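[audit] Reproducing an earlier prediction to check determinism. Same input, same settings, fresh worker. If the tokens differ from the archived copy the diff job will pick it up downstream; this log only records the rerun itself.
[audit] input (125 residues):
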Amino acid sequence: MLLMLPGIVMISLYLILTRNFTSRNRQQVTWSPAVAALAINVGCNWFLIPASVFSGAAVSTAISYSVAALILLVMFVRSRGTRDGDAVRRPGGLRERWSGWRPGCAGRPWNDLENDGGLRPEGVG
């Protein structure tokens, strides 16, 4: 079971990243990591299964999914245009974008709530 744990974590990361690319209509990005994982899995299976049957298969799958997840992670970071949390540190990053956000205002800053064009019910405000 411990042999499978790193593979389970990496499969989870792989699935999350593939769903992200698919939701952005970029399914073609997920092909190259999948092909790389297939080639690595077949190669590792060729050597590891005869040596240690079930353990070899688990290690082979963990290695192949780890490589695929890391390839997708690199592609994800490059597609987002951020490096190591730059979105938080640079001007105009997440801190400035979310500085005016308050719960219940649908992502609009407080100053936009005052200029809602009369959409508030009477007596509110």
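[audit] rerun output stored. Observation attached for the diff report: The chain is about 65% helix and 0% strand.
[audit] end
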